[in-house]
Design a protein that fits this description.
about 800 residues; EXOC6/Sec15_C_dom1; EXOC6PINT-1/Sec15/Tip20_C_dom2; Exocyst complex component; Tetracycline Repressor, domain 2; transport; two-stranded antiparallel sheet
Length: about 800
């Protein structure tokens, strides 16, 4: 069984050797050598080889004749082939000789074709490379010319279009590597230009603002000229009325004279010829646009916008910070306003010429900040100002400032409200200034009637003050006006004050009624506070004479009469009728009345003081045994003084002169009585009473003579009635009548007070006791002393009974 399997295995191996490629026979042979029947296999292999050899031999024997025949034919063919070879060689030689020129031509043609191909390739490459080089050259030129935005666009085109088409060349790689550096350089240079631009506009913002404000002023002048021409026909009459009676004021600079159409026309023609440059003419905004475009292309627009706004906010804070001494001069305010206007003119231009760099909300935010800072600065610095002219110039400058910014669309209502607040401050400064003017006029006045020698002098004074008196007009020259110099000067100062108030109210967008109300209220303050205080100052100052007080009363009377002219004057310049409902009335009448009453009281007080000074010279001998036959010297001088004084009162209103005279007589009577009853006078003799009675009679003669006309009968004598009845009672020793009729309306001694009589009687009683120490032993003296004691007792009983 094993031999059969072995034989089958050997058979398989032999078939495999026969059919398998010799390169793969190794594994088959290995299996033979690995087995135990190696010899047996070799025997079978030899047997197989012999079988194949016998088959091959049979095959060769079968085909040998054919092989011989083929060899024979092959030998024949070799000879023919040799001949053919010789022929072919010859033919080839001939062909080679004949095609040599063709080959040379073909070789030249191939070389030309190769050159053409190279040239075409070169042209194609150059076609793609030349734009790169040209664009790079253009880029270099733009960089040298500092045209950075076109350079950036060129750089963008070079990177995205030209370089990819050019291919991989070394110079292209160099260019590609250089592009980021160029971008960075362009960005840095443009930012540097922007910083220079920001620094430049910060330094020149005042010039920009000055130019913008000049433009606004030119425009406003043109508008005013147009309005003036439109209203020239209708306003001619009102201007004429406003100018009546104020010729001298017109020469001094009335606001109406400033609206002369000829001057405006000339100024307008000059302004039209000299065109004021705009902000864009003074500032080159190209750095902003260039930097904006560059950052937009670089994809960093937000960064640029934030940087620009941040820097401008910082500059805004610097611009809005006023100088510490800004309030000293108008130039300080002008420079401050110019910087603010310049700042916002630039922002407004950037807002309208760029898309989104700044927006309306950003500009409005800055304007709100500027508005609050500006108003605070103006309030603070204007409070330091004491010159009303500077405040007026500041107001005009502020109005121009507001008009300029309003022309650019910024809301300015708060600034106008602030100007209305400053109006009160301006009014206070005007009051202080006019207070000095009034006091200076009062100090320089001579308090004498104004002499008028010619008609020209009269017209000159009438131009200052409206004075109408038909009786005075009939008098021949030379003559005197009843008032002194301060009356026309005061009236002119009042009109100048009204003009000053009017100037401030101009261009504040106020109605005529509001302007009229403001002027009237300010004028009332001037009248009731400033002018009243100045008149009180003139009346109350030391060493003021009676003649001066009399002249002050006359002056205030004429000023009071002129108040309705001031009413008409204000109505003419404001075009508001004085009878308008709700119109404020001037308080001038009450002011001058109060001043006149104060002067009258001062006259009364002054007269009384003069009387007291004379009474201090009284030197009575209260123990005189008998009185003299004539009045005391001091009283004679006093009467002479009163006569000369009341002679000056001829120009005063009759009632004032009468009141002054009555007041002086009453004070003289009261003072004489006090002199008689004063505590220092302890004893009074009958002789002293007789001398005192002579002096009182002298006073009564003065009163009876009528030093001031207008008294009815002996009215002035009533001032001395108390003293007269007292002296009659003592000199006539009519105590029985006094005591019997006391309390009756028909009593002869109705004005004698029992207290006064008792006090004087006590002094006479003490005198009798002292001087008649030894006379008590005489019967007459004893009776007299008893009589005095009895009267004293009765007077005391009378006083006690009336008190109970």
């Amino acid at each position: 069984m094993a031999s059969v399997e072995t034989a089958a295995e050997h058979e398989r191996i032999l078939r495999e050797i026969e059919s398998t490629d010799t390169n793969c026979i190794g594994p088959t042979l290995r299996s033979v050598y690995d087995g135990q029947e190696h010899g047996l296999f070799m025997d079978k292999l030899e047997a197989r080889i012999r079988n194949h050899d016998r088959e091959i031999e049979k095959m060769c024997n079968h085909h040998f004749q054919g092989f011989v025949d083929s060899i024979t034919e092959l030998l024949k063919v070799r000879g023919e082939a040799q001949k053919l070879k010789v022929q072919v060689t010859e033919t080839n030689q001939k062909l080679q000789n004949d095609g040599k020129q063709l080959l040379d031509a073909m070789d030249e043609l191939r070389q030309c074709r190769l050159q053409q191909r190279n040239i075409a390739t070169t042209i194609d490459k150059l076609t793609h490379c030349l734009p790169v080089l040209e664009m790079y050259s253009r880029l270099q030129e733009q960089m040298r010319a500092k045209r950075y935005y076109p350079a950036l666009c060129t750089l963008e085109q070079l990177e995205q279009t030209c370089l990819p088409k050019a291919g991989q060349y070394r110079f292209c790689s160099i260019m590609a590597d250089n592009i980021p550096r160029l971008r960075t350089h362009i960005r840095d240079v443009s930012m540097s230009d922007l910083k220079d631009f920001l620094e430049s506009i910060r330094k020149h913002s005042d010039k920009i603002g000055e130019t913008a404000m000049k433009q606004a002023q030119v425009q406003r002048s043109l508008d005013n000229a147009l309005t003036h021409q439109q209203r020239a026909g209708s306003g001619r009459r009102s201007r004429k009325e406003a100018g009546q009676g104020t010729e001298l004021d017109g020469q001094g600079g009335s606001p109406l004279s400033e609206q002369d159409s000829g001057i405006l026309d000339v100024e307008d023609e000059e302004e039209e010829d000299d065109e004021v440059p705009g902000a864009h003419d003074l500032v080159d905004f190209s750095p902003v646009y260039r930097c904006l475009h560059i950052y937009t292309v670089l994809g960093a627009r937000d960064t640029f916008e934030n940087y620009y706004r941040k820097q401008r906010r910082k500059q805004a804070r610097l611009v809005l910070q006023p100088h510490s001494n800004m309030h000293e001069t108008l130039e300080g305010y002008s420079r401050y306003f110019n910087q603010i206007v310049g700042f916002f003119v630039v922002e407004d231009h950037v807002l309208h010429t760029t898309q989104g760099l700044v927006n309306r909300a950003y500009v409005e935010e800055l304007w709100e900040l500027a508005l609050s800072k500006t108003i605070a600065a103006l309030r603070t610095h204007s409070s330091y100002c004491t010159d009303p002219d500077l405040i007026l110039d500041l107001k005009n400058l502020t109005v121009l400032f507001t008009d300029t910014l309003q022309g650019y669309g910024f809301p300015v209502n708060q600034l106008f409200d602030m100007l209305l607040e400053m109006r009160d401050q301006y009014g206070e400064m005007l009051l202080k200034k006019w207070n000095q003017s009034f006091r200076q006029i009062l100090d320089q006045d001579n308090y004498s009637p104004i002499p008028v020698a010619t008609e020209e002098e009269h017209k000159r004074i009438a131009g200052h003050f409206p004075f109408n008196d038909p009786e005075w007009e009939k008098m021949p020259f030379p003559k005197k006006l009843p008032f002194s110099e301060f009356v026309p000067k005061f009236y002119s100062q009042l009109k100048e004050f009204i003009y000053a108030c009017l100037k401030y109210s101009e261009d504040l967008h106020l109605s005529s009624t509001e302007i009229d109300d403001m002027i009237r209220k300010s004028t009332n303050l001037l009248l009731t506070r400033t002018l009243s205080n100045c008149l009180q100052y003139a009346i109350k100052k030391k060493n003021v004479g009676l003649a001066e007080l009399v002249q002050i009363i006359i002056n205030t009377t004429h000023l009071e009469q002129s108040c309705h002219y001031l009413e008409e004057f204000i109505s003419n310049i404001t075009s508001v009728p004085p009878d308008t409902v709700g119109a404020t009335k001037l308080y001038g009448t009450s002011t001058f009345k109060d001043a006149r009453h104060a002067a009258e009281e001062e006259i009364y007080t002054n007269l009384n003081q003069k009387i007291d000074q004379f009474l201090q010279l009284a030197d009575y001998d209260w123990m005189a045994p008998q009185g003299g036959g004539q009045a005391s010297d001091y009283l004679s001088d006093l009467i002479a003084f009163l006569c000369s004084t009341f002679a000056v009162f001829t120009h005063l209103p009759g009632k004032v002169a009468q009141t002054a005279c009555m007041s002086a007589c009453k004070h003289l009577s009261t003072s004489l009585l006090q002199l008689l009853l004063e505590a220092d006078v302890r004893q009074v003799s009958m002789g002293a009473l007789q001398q005192f009675n002579v002096d009182v009679k002298e006073c009564e003669r003065f009163a009876r003579a009528g030093p001031v006309p207008g008294f009815q009968g002996d009215t002035l004598l009533l001032a001395f009635i108390d003293l007269r009845q007292l002296l009659d009672l003592f000199t006539q020793w009519d105590w029985s009548t006094y005591l019997a009729d006391y309390g009756r309306p028909t009593s002869k001694y109705l004005r004698v007070n029992p207290h006064t009589a008792l006090a004087l009687l006590e002094k006479m009683k003490d005198t009798s006791r002292k001087n008649n120490m030894f006379a008590q032993f005489r019967k007459n003296e004893r009776d007299k002393q008893k009589l005095i004691d009895t009267v004293v007792k009765q007077l005391r009983n009378l006083i006690s009974s009336h008190q109970s």
